[in-house]
Design goal:
By secondary structure, the protein is α/β, with parallel strands linked by helices. The protein contains eleven helices and five strands.
Length: 217
């Protein structure tokens, strides 16, 4: 079984490489962005892709589904954190080749996901299964109808993101560490119930949180 590791976090990549190295039936290849991943799939699509969706430049669930349909032999394991419930439901319903793992899953679940993948089956971890089966409470539905309560710092960082600045550039501008800005970024995504920069900016523009005159991406 060939595994493409599509994750930009060094610690996560190292951990996944270690897990794969323990299996006699696996070999791995690293990809750093959407373009390199698609090029790798053109060469060989009979693979399992372990993908951190939140760190890759894939616009939304629809685009991921299109890529999945383009390479029907490939099986996907979304290995991320803070994925929105709407996104998860769309993936489960429209992408039968996509399994889902959270990054705080146990080692046993990660190994089980790879076992499923080796048999051509998708795996959805216990936390995600419980989330998808849960009925939203009245309070949760009401929260969805209101704008997220972003802090002043989070709103400033969201505007910088909309202006095309990277996490490193924002950290330098604010005289903050990369880790601090990245934590703010994750909190923004969680509050907006989005999974990546593209979705965050679309939400911010629709809600009037970002001035469309400043947006150029």
């Amino acid at each position: 079984m060939k595994i493409y590791i599509a994750d930009n976090q060094d610690i996560t990549r190292a951990g996944l490489l270690y897990i794969v190295s323990q299996r006699q039936d696996c070999e791995s290849k690293l990809t750093s962005d959407k373009s390199s991943l698609i090029e790798a799939l053109k060469e060989d699509s009979h693979v399992v892709i372990v993908l951190d969706y939140t760190l890759f430049d894939i616009n939304d669930a629809a685009e991921l589904c299109i890529i999945s349909q383009r390479f029907p032999e490939a099986l996907w394991i979304l290995f991320s954190e803070d994925l929105s419930q709407d996104f998860l439901r769309e993936i489960v319903l429209t992408c039968p080749k996509c399994g889902i793992l959270l990054k705080d899953c146990s080692m046993a679940e990660i190994r089980e996901a790879l076992d499923f993948a080796s048999k051509g089956k998708r795996y959805i971890c216990q936390q995600i299964t419980e989330l998808l089966l849960a009925t939203p409470s009245k309070e949760e539905n009401q929260r969805k109808e209101t704008l997220p309560n972003l802090t002043k710092t989070e709103l400033e960082i969201l505007k910088d993101i909309a202006l095309g600045m990277t996490t490193k550039e924002i950290a330098q501008k604010r005289f903050s560490s990369f880790h601090t800005v990245n934590t703010h970024r994750k909190n923004i995504f969680r509050k907006l119930a989005v999974n990546n920069v593209h979705e965050a900016i679309k939400f911010a523009l629709r809600a009037g949180l970002v001035d469309s005159a400043e947006y150029y991406i």
